[in-house]
């Protein structure tokens, strides 16, 4: 079976890999690269726990094939904080108590970043529509919504 | 446990993959893709976004020895508009591209809005219109709405091509009219005539739509000059409802209620509703009528303009 050479950056680091075409992105990120912040939950593109960004596109790593990341800049939750300094979106989630068990949080954070890069001043309705595909079974979403709206303000204020 | 700050070093390949092995082919022309399909027959399948295909393969429902990636063929993902207003969407354009495209938003706002509500943002970022249509999953939005724009499918193979009405593309659940070596390359969406507007409404509480109803209405001096109605998700394939359309044509707008109710009943029956996880056939037939009336009202409101 012919394998596929891919060159990509993952959280800023250049990666040159050779992957079989049937390897999923989540297998590649978790097992090859040890990025365990990419969570596997529903495994059918519904829950959003495995959300990562390929350039500016949020994707479900559970079903996207790894070779599709070639030539892209892959971003996962591991790339957000700078040392001990949290990313403004992470800060907003912490300060608003927008997580309980935390399993959905990496996907929530990555989807939020994609949303805010596309639309820096979303309304609550925009946020609800965009985040419809990220499921949380703990919080009831109210605090997540508040955190995302606040994260937008933080990013605009040069956070 | 994860590498600090994203500085991940390669460990080892996954011990066990979720997918059975297959060979990837990446053609750079339609001719080459068609030849690959012809050579490998039933063991090959076209692969675009993979949001449906890879999922079904992961579940073990289907397997192919060869996936032929259409995304490496240049020019299949574009969106353009002809001088006569016809919108041409490349089969490999993603839902997200269509949803955000300025031409689509300006000239076919109902199409843009429908795309905005397909699945979730991740599926839309990867899934393509052509893939959606060719997978022919009955519970789906685009196939119904596109039919009220009299959309056509451009189908190419090595050394030939044909264009079919979208209605003819759908043969049955998960089955299209494409021959083994053919590719859907473009969807043409025709502009509505003046004094026309379209609307699409759906209902569902699962990930996929349970019922979808599209209408396009043309007005002439207080009367319905013409109406197109298409129903999706309810039966095995999305289809036009010509009996309902005939009932609506010629009715006066004031007092269209009775014709609309009857059109809803006929469309419900003609939709060939099947009972499944989304609900009973009876329930879906009823919803077709409800959504038809609402969509009709929404199209009329659009025609009367804002305010």
Please render the helix and strand layout as text:
The complex is a heterodimer of chains A (159) and B (307).
Chain A: E1 4-10, E2 13-19, H1 25-32, E3 51-54, E4 57-60, E5 73-75, H2 88-95, H3 105-118, H4 124-130, H5 142-156
Parallel strand pairs in A: 1-5
Antiparallel strand pairs in A: 1-2, 3-4, 3-5
Helix pairs in contact in A: 2-5
Chain B: E1 23-25, H1 30-40, E2 44-47, H2 53-58, E3 66-69, E4 79-81, E5 87-90, H3 95-100, H4 102-107, H5 109-116, H6 121-126, H7 129-135, H8 142-147, E6 152-157, E7 160-165, H9 166-169, E8 170-172, E9 175-176, E10 183-189, E11 196-203, E12 211-220, E13 223-232, E14 239-240, H10 242-248, H11 257-270, H12 281-304
Parallel strand pairs in B: 1-3, 2-3
Antiparallel strand pairs in B: 4-5, 5-10, 6-7, 6-10, 8-9, 11-12, 12-13, 13-14
Helix pairs in contact in B: 10-11, 11-12
Short description:
The complex is a heterodimer of chains A (159) and B (307). With 159 residues, chain A is of the alpha+beta class.
Explain what you see.
The complex is a heterodimer of chains A (159) and B (307). Chain A is globular. Chain A folds into two domains: 4-79, Beta-grasp domain (Ubiquitin-like (UB roll), Roll); 88-156, Orthogonal Bundle (DNA polymerase, domain 1), CATH 1.10.150. Helix content of chain A is 33%, strand content 16%. Chain A is an alpha+beta fold. Chain A has five helices and five strands; from the N terminus they run E-E-H-E-E-E-H-H-H-H. Chain A has a five-stranded mixed beta sheet with strand order 2-1-5-3-4, sandwiched between helices. In chain A, helix 2 runs antiparallel to helix 5. Chain B folds into three domains: 19-72, Uridine Diphospho-n-acetylenolpyruvylglucosamine Reductase, domain 2 (2-Layer Sandwich); 79-189, 2-Layer Sandwich (Uridine Diphospho-n-acetylenolpyruvylglucosamine Reductase, domain 3); 196-304, Enolase-like, domain 1, CATH 3.30.390. Chain B contains twelve helices and 14 strands. Chain B has helices at residues 30-40, 53-58, 95-100, 102-107, 109-116, 121-126, 129-135, 142-147, 166-169, 242-248, 257-270, 281-304, and strands at 23-25, 44-47, 66-69, 79-81, 87-90, 152-157, 160-165, 170-172, 175-176, 183-189, 196-203, 211-220, 223-232, 239-240. Chain B has a five-stranded antiparallel beta sheet with strand order 4-5-10-6-7. In chain B, strands 11-12-13-14 form a four-stranded antiparallel beta sheet. In chain B, a hairpin with a 7-residue loop joins strand 11 (196-203) and strand 12 (211-220). Chain B is globular. The interface between A and B is large, with 52 and 38 residues.
């Amino acid at each position: 079976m012919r394998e596929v050479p891919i060159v990509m950056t993952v959280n800023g680091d250049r990666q040159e890999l050779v992957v079989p075409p049937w390897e999923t992105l989540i297998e590649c990120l978790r097992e090859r690269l040890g990025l365990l912040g990419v969570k596997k939950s529903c495994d059918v593109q519904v829950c959003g726990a495995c959300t990562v960004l390929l350039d500016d596109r949020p994707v479900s790593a559970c079903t996207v094939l790894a070779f599709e990341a070639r030539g892209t800049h892959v971003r996962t939750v591991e790339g957000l904080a700078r040392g001990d300094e949290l990313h403004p979106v992470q800060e907003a989630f912490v300060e608003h108590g927008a997580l309980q068990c935390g399993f959905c949080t990496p996907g929530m954070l990555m989807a939020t970043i994609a949303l805010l890069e596309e639309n820096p001043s979303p309304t609550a309705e925009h946020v609800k529509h965009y985040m419809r595909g990220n499921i949380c079974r703990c919080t009831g979403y109210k605090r997540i919504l508040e955190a995302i709206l606040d994260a937008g303000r933080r990013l605009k204020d040069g956070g | 446990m994860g590498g600090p700050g994203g500085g991940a070093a390669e460990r080892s390949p996954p011990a066990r993959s979720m997918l059975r092995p297959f060979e990837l082919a990446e053609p750079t022309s339609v001719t080459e893709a068609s030849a690959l399909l012809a050579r490998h027959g039933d063991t090959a399948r076209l692969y675009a976004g993979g949001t449906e295909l890879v999922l079904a393969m992961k579940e073990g429902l289907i397997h192919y020895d060869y996936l032929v990636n259409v995304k490496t063929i240049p020019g299949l993902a574009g969106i353009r508009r002809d001088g006569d207003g016809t919108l041409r969407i490349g089969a490999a354009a993603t839902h997200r591209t269509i949803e955000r495209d300025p031409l689509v938003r300006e000239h076919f706002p109902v199409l843009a809005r429908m795309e905005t509500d397909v699945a979730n943002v991740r599926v839309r970022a990867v899934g393509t219109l052509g893939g959606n249509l060719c997978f022919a999953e009955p519970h789906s939005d685009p196939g119904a709405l596109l039919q009220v724009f009299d959309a056509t499918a451009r189908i190419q193979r090595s050394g030939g091509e044909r264009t079919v009405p979208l209605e003819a593309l759908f043969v049955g659940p998960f089955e299209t009219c494409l021959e083994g070596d053919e590719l859907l390359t473009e969807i043409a969406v025709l502009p509505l005539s003046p004094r026309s507007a379209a609307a699409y409404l759906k209902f569902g509480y699962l990930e996929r739509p349970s019922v979808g109803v599209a209408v396009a209405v043309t007005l002439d001096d207080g009367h319905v000059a013409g109406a197109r109605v298409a129903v999706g998700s309810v039966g095995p394939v999305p289809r036009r409802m010509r009996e309902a359309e005939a009932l609506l044509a010629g009715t006066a707008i004031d007092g269209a209620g009775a014709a609309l109710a009857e059109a809803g009943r006929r469309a419900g029956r003609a939709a060939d509703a099947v009972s499944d996880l989304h609900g009973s056939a009876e329930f879906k037939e009823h919803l077709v009528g409800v959504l038809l009336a609402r969509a009709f009202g929404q199209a009329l409101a659009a025609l009367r303009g804002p305010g």
